[in-house]
Model the fold of this input.
Amino acid sequence: MNNLLGIDFGERFIGLAIKKHNISIPYAHKIIDTKFTNLITELTNITKKERITKIIVGYPKGLTNKQTRMSNLVNDFIDNELKNNFDIPVVKVDERLTSKAIKNASNKRIDDLSAVKILETFCSNE
Done:
């Protein structure tokens, strides 16, 4: 019975989604603005409250399947933040085009919806 936390990592904004074992689809949870919120404290609270058993992180690759600057930032985030602060398995999921798959007519942040797409991708391949 897995409770999954999906993360759409950005340099400032982090989108989060959750997939509970007893609910068939993931849902948008929140967007964290790291300028105003301590990311690790917030993730600690969420992982405990939601009983998260696996963290799924969107992994940005270039369209030619090569690592990008953001790929390196995500690797650093996983290695230095997630693995050092959580005893929860972390899985990377190819997130190419997830933000583009969500139509956004306004300038509203959609990082949490991108995290939903990341979880949907993971669940469909599991």
User: Anything to note?
Assistant: The chain has one domain: 4-125. Residues 61 and 68 are 6 Å apart (CA to CA). The beta strands are 4-8, 13-19, 27-33, 54-59, 90-94.
